[in-house]
Please model this.
Amino acid sequence: MTQFPKTARLMQRGRDFLGSDYAIMCGAMSWVSERNLVSAISNGGGFGVIACGAMTTELLDAEIAATRARTDKPFGVNLITMHPQLLDLIAVCERHGVTHVVLAGGIPPKGSVEAIKGGKNPAKVICFAPTLALAKKLLRSGADALVIEGMEAGGHIGPVSTSVLAQEMLPELSEDHLIFVAGGIGRGQAIAGYLEMGAAGVQLGTRFACATESIAHPDFKKAFFRANARDAVTSVQVDARLPVIPVRALKNKGTEEFTRKQTEVAGVLDRNEIAMEEAQLQIEHYWAGSLKKAVIDGDIERGSLMAGQSVGMLKEEEPAADILSKLMSQSEEALARR
Model:
């Protein structure tokens, strides 16, 4: 790490926590953050995270094993809190000795944090915190680290920008807790700034989506290379009773179809045919299917092109290790100029 001494020093707590050379996590992107990209990021010095999404226990079991076969470096698994098999998925992670579990999509249900930390192979728990009050609650409930993610990010987002969240939460929490910053980060200069503010590290998703090792369809990657920041728009909530978390993606016909999907699900709710939790799960399954259309099948018209506003900085495919090295170099140069 002597190549990046200033950045490494500011990242030290995050590096120690993750067990990686760089305290740079890859955001869990469904269909993208799988064995190939996750292992490449971990092998390149970062911290890869498998996106479990709507996977069954059998699929997650196979994915972890395949990732382990490709890297001996640490990596994590991202689990959705509303998944009906959450505790079973946690058990799969435990069997494989996964060192870090990221809980996303809402407040962790009762017993989930304890299950992750209390098994035969205890793991660290990382949670997402969109507000300061919730951040404090999650830390009291056993979270070992937090990710604060701003609305510039791709995929599911909150309403507040990364820069505001960082200003509000890092001074309050970073001295005693491990806080990773995410959302709209595309260059190392931004990483340097958040590290100086007290962040233990950062998380990036969009920057890695088009890495050489990403299995995303060539047309998916081309759509990213053509896009600019303003093309990554947020989804519209149709019905106030259906608390759909906004999603940021490149605008296409699929964006319009999601609006129609919400109307359909709201109608089913009107008729009391399903519970609210099931309605939300239907929305999640919609996104999983829509993402697969884009990422795997290359349907960039009707599939979901989830992307953060940093998408405008992507111009070409690069190996994950080169992306990580470039980010660290940019951060080091920025800190050297201070």
About this structure: The CA atoms of residues 169 and 314 lie 29 Å apart.
